[in-house]
Amino acid sequence: MLLSRRTSLAMAVIGALWGPAAALAHPEPHAADSVQAGPQADAAMARVVDDFHAALARGDTSAAASLLSEAVVIFEGGSAERSRTEYATAHLPADAAFEQAVGSQLVRRSGETLGDMAWVASEGRTKGQFKGRDVDRVTTETMVLRRIYGRWRIVHVHWSSHAAQAGH
Question: Which end of the chain has fewer CB atoms at under 10 Å, N or C?
């Protein structure tokens, strides 16, 4: 099967960045080498992402953390957290409080599954109030998932946002 140039490049970059670090830091065995691709598989990955956000919105940090790999790498605002434990003790409670207080709307989503790896890219809008301040941000999120012990786990998150323009 031929992949598009963009998909091939994205998977190569993800593999180059993630593979060596994950193997050295926290070895986790791969499930059988079955290929899962297509709309049904992509929908399953979107559900994992949605379940993560739903857990945050409920304030259920344990459920949110359970969807993350032990070796998850999270990029946000130029910072990095390099494990589930680091994220859980640093920003997870604040992210849950924010998501509980401020509504968000999914605007667009794309993704792809290839074997035991998948990615989901989401664009959205977050609007509401948090700690007495108005929030109106356009958001982007990329999550990379990997099948670990037969279950999909989030292994990388990259969040970014910018202030929404007036009138949009």
Answer: N
Query: Which residues fall within 8 angstroms of residue 119, CB to CB, at 6 or more apart?
Result: 10, 14, 45, 111, 112, 142, 143, 144, 145
| Residue 108, both tokens | 């667009």
Query: Which tokens belong to 80?
Result: 């990095």
For 63, 87, 106, 160, the CA distances from 58, given in Å and listed in that order, are 10, 18, 17, 22
d(CA 153, CA 150): 9
Q: What is the pLDDT of residue 159?
A: 98
pLDDT digits (tens, 9 = 90+) for 77-87: 999 999 999 99
- Residue 167 backbone phi and psi in degrees, to 5: 85, 0
| Model confidence, pTM | 0.77
